[in-house]
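sanity check this fold:
=====
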Amino acid sequence: MSSSVSASPFTGLDAERFATHLAQRSYLPAWWIAAKQEAWNEFTSLPMPARKDENWRFANLKGLSLDDFIVPEEHSSLVPHLPNFPHASEIIFSNRQTVGRSGLPKELADQGVIFAPLDEALRDHGDLVRNYFQQHPVNLGSEKFIALNIAFAACGTFLYVPKGVKVDLPFVVQHTISGDKQSIFPHTIVALEESSEASLVEFFVSGDTASHLASGVNDLHAGQNAKLTYVGAQNWSEDTLSFQANSIHAARDARVQCLNVHLGGRQARHESHSRLAGPGAHCDMLALTVAKGSQEFDQRTLQTHQAPHTTSDLLYKNALIDTAKTIFSGLIVVDPDAQQTDAYQTNRNLLLSDKAEANSLPGLEIQANDVKCSHGSTSGRVPPEQEFYLQSRGIDPVKAHELIVFGFFEEVLNRLEDEHLHAVLSELIQSKFKKS
């Protein structure tokens, strides 16, 4: 099966290509066009990360070059199948184009739920989208790449759930990319009003093994007493350069669960900033990573407690094989008025190779005097007797590693209420061990 991507005179990440992209969206609100122009100006003015940047400590800066990447105008026919599990509605993108979509159930549409590609939502609900777009930037070091996302964002999704509406099944989005040196810029906005409930699952996958660039941004908003679950699972090609920035804002008594699964990419950086903005707000920040070969996964997090009686729990688990490398740098910040904060931050690394490298930098910044906060990091190897036991039962080393990783990850996967999604993510993790 061949890709339908065609050549274009305006392909690179340059001013001419950006001007063409902007002209193609002249029908969208003026504020959006202005935001994209501002983002482009920021992207071109900001320098690339440098060796002395603390936010990029331990990262391989030589691998961050954006040279030669191009912006596709047409979809590819190489679109992996969406995992099959119960969900409310789906949207599928290929090379920045919408290629598949199921209708929103009538009962949800009648209640005012909106689930649409971002360009469509901007056209039909521009003022509503504006209320939630980039209200709380991540600001953890990837500002240049976030600006690039906003400048070229097209394959985005807008999910809006009105006050009091509860959606049992998750909404699903799949972003796919194919073709050598193609780039993609997913931008997702989720807005849950007071006392509403919903889940969104995003899959980020490559349709081939070529070199790609992916720069994604999420704006996640949970209103008062709302319950939001977000799952992002990326399995890009092993030659993909990936950036992802997640912004989480939780109002009074809101509950947010955010789980990210990292499998693909040559070099993948993920930033996540949760803001507990109202009393009683809670956020679970979870991540699972399987790093093989020479992959590098760079994770930067910030838990900001802005109000009293807020709670957060971060648990990031990394399994490393071969010469893979992971970086975790996390910080809990408790503002002066955020008394009786209860916050935890844990990074655990499972080293399945003598040559793997795990770097951890957890931290606390507490400005209140009545809090309970802790942070910790562990890196360890599998006890030899465990591997010996499995292999003595006829299990080959690769399968033994797989079973050990599954056991290591179950603590996180078991936090999901959706058993079907639990099974899908387990199968996705298993697929990494099947790759040659």
About this structure: The helical segments are 15-23, 30-45, 106-110, 118-130, 143-152, 384-392, 397-413, 419-434. Confidence is low (pLDDT under 50) at residues 1-10. The two ends are 21 Å apart (CA to CA). Residues 15-382 form one domain.
